[in-house]
Amino acid sequence: MNEFSFINSIYRKLGPDSKKFSGDDAAFIKCRSNDLLVSKDLLVENIHFNLSYSAPEDIGYKAVSVNLSDITACGGNPRYLLIGFAFPQKKMHIMKKICTGAAECAHRYKCLLIGGDTTASRSDIFISITAIGQTDNFIKRSGSNKGDLIYITDYTGFSAAGLIFLQEKIRPADFPGMEQVIKTCIHNHRRPEPEIKKMRKLIAGYRISSMIDISDGLSSELYHLYESNKKKYGLQINESALFCPAITSAGKIIDKIKKKRNSALELALHGGEDYRLLFTSPDLIPRHLALKIGTVVSEKKIFSIGSSGRKKIECLGYNHFF
Amino acid sequence: MNEFSFINSIYRKLGPDSKKFSGDDAAFIKCRSNDLLVSKDLLVENIHFNLSYSAPEDIGYKAVSVNLSDITACGGNPRYLLIGFAFPQKKMHIMKKICTGAAECAHRYKCLLIGGDTTASRSDIFISITAIGQTDNFIKRSGSNKGDLIYITDYTGFSAAGLIFLQEKIRPADFPGMEQVIKTCIHNHRRPEPEIKKMRKLIAGYRISSMIDISDGLSSELYHLYESNKKKYGLQINESALFCPAITSAGKIIDKIKKKRNSALELALHGGEDYRLLFTSPDLIPRHLALKIGTVVSEKKIFSIGSSGRKKIECLGYNHFF
User: Which of A248, B17, B241, B317 can pair with B216 through a Cys bridge, CB separation 3.0 to 4.6 Å?
Assistant: First the structure.
């Protein structure tokens, strides 16, 4: 899509199969056998990522990964990527590392870079990603029915805990016995993975009535499911299903740092950037594929049942400026 | 693709057909009957556009238009758009006007907005556009053959002249008798149009062996054609075919302002952002569809034949920082 040597170096990183797509004004996709899904994300330095919390390679990896997650959350297999970068020339060395990380994620999930754009900016780095996937089973957010079970593909809150550990400059050695928990949280923040394999197994074996990925936090994604379905049904969440020993430990560390209580519940409900899949199904799905966390109910509310009784779940997902 | 009210207001501008695509993590395209073309562009304030030279509505219009031109240049009919914006909150009023212009162009060419992303930036506005088109006749840059004729769909240089008039604060009234030329140049700079209709007629009636749009300047696009075809053949351009009375007049005005000579030739050969189509064909094509400007020759060079004899054409297209 453009002629500059920099983007050619990205194509080289992504291998000869990518190269064959470059060189024309638009990329050609032969698609007579499958329908397509397209997602688009714009990531801004110091808004969505911060070079003091993540290595440039991690930022590139995550930028691709979260787009693949969007395709996955609609029942698609990610296949193609278009990546645009804007950056000041003095940050070229950082951009090359970001590209290396982006290429690593693209390789891992067998996505081809088919186009892009590279241009200047005055100070911050901007990353614009378009991901394209194939599907023969488009899953919307809006299909849940009364009585469906509510699932997440894995526990939530690790990424948000990782971000707090990075912001507070917590090192694993600072909390003896908790090293692995801290490392896991930081890794999940820096390198979240799209849950493509689990999505494929779920679609192949079970009826999935609605699906969304957890980017801003479980609570806000529950609200998205609810609103997408025109608030026809409510969502009841079992609080106890949200905890595992690791998230309980992470919560305890954050209680200590922040002098708070119940951080584990806050992390699990409102912590963003986990990129787990949240979905509904009328089927009972085994634990190794997904965790059952609640039920679609006729009462038109979103609430939890927990140790302190029944509570409305607030919508506290992260929101950049609105 | 995201939940914010701002992007919802864009969807409203683009009508109810666009709205049905929003609300999921990715947009769904049913495409069993046609192959797709995808283009991607990143536009940065004060790099690609400047609010002192164009109204925000013009910037939005042009941002969409140039992406539709990329699809057109590959033989595609533009159908869908994904638009991402990053901007500081204090520029919200400007962004709304940019969106109005973008919507106007999308409407005019019957493109649906199927996704996007809206986020914050610290100072500059960033616009990221992905355009998707359908095609059953993908035309590459690389298909020209010896003996093919070289065409452009219309004269080049107007947009570059318009930019100079804006930069130099020239008003039409400053050059009596030249008002219309100045207005045309400024309009072409602010609101270039994708040549979709001409492309369709050309494809329907003639054999088109290669095609590209003229974004950076005729000279650099000639080099792109040459390089895409692995420099198998050279390109001979007839200088006189590049001039019409209007571009000659624009050149005279610029000669006067800049105290130069031969501005008309420079504009025609190296002036960017015209978004005309440059293509090759073995067929003789009537003048109302395209201007014949040269021939694909066996001599492996890019040169012009003109009043001062034979000259190498330099590659002087615009390049943001490389």
Answer: B317
